[in-house]
Design goal:
- With 123 residues, this protein is mainly β.
- Helices cover 0% and strands 48% of the residues.
- The protein has no helices and 11 strands.
- The strands form 2 sheets. Strands 2, 4, 5, 6, 9, 10 and 11 form a 7-stranded mixed β-sheet that branches.
- The radius of gyration is 13 Å and the shape is globular.
- The protein starts with a strand and ends with a strand.
Length: 123
């Protein structure tokens, strides 16, 4: 599985961005998809995940209520809508595939990773 995240950029605090992640392969609709982020000098951090059908999502407490994950299995894409952005949201955002049946937050659960896209939020 190959993944590529798109549409990062620079935005002022309080603004919005919508990231997309495109995946290769015909099994996309069977995967749990996750979003993570990594700021300079910090460990990779769970942002959220979505189940195969798109009916269940989980979010980190730091983004709950501001970020929304959705997916389009027909297009092999998963999106991350980010609203009310804060400077502390600045990071490289990565999408990842979890082939298991149970949603989880630990990075080691995720087998395939994209290269990420940089989001910079200025104050």
């Amino acid at each position: 599985v190959q993944l590529q995240a798109f549409w990062g950029g620079m935005v002022q605090a309080g603004g919005s961005l919508r990231l997309s992640c495109a995946a290769s392969g015909s099994a996309f609709g069977r995967y749990i998809m996750g979003w993570f982020r990594q700021a300079p000098g910090k460990e990779r951090e769970f942002v959220g995940c979505i189940n195969w059908g798109g009916s269940i999502t989980e979010y980190a407490a730091s983004v709950e209520g501001r970020f929304t994950i959705s997916r389009d299995n027909a297009k092999n894409t998963v999106s991350l809508q980010m609203n009310s952005l804060k400077p502390e949201d600045t990071a490289v955002y990565l999408c990842a595939v979890d082939e298991s049946l149970i949603m989880g937050r630990r990075p080691e659960r995720y087998k395939y990773w994209g290269q990420g896209t940089l989001v910079t939020v200025s104050s």
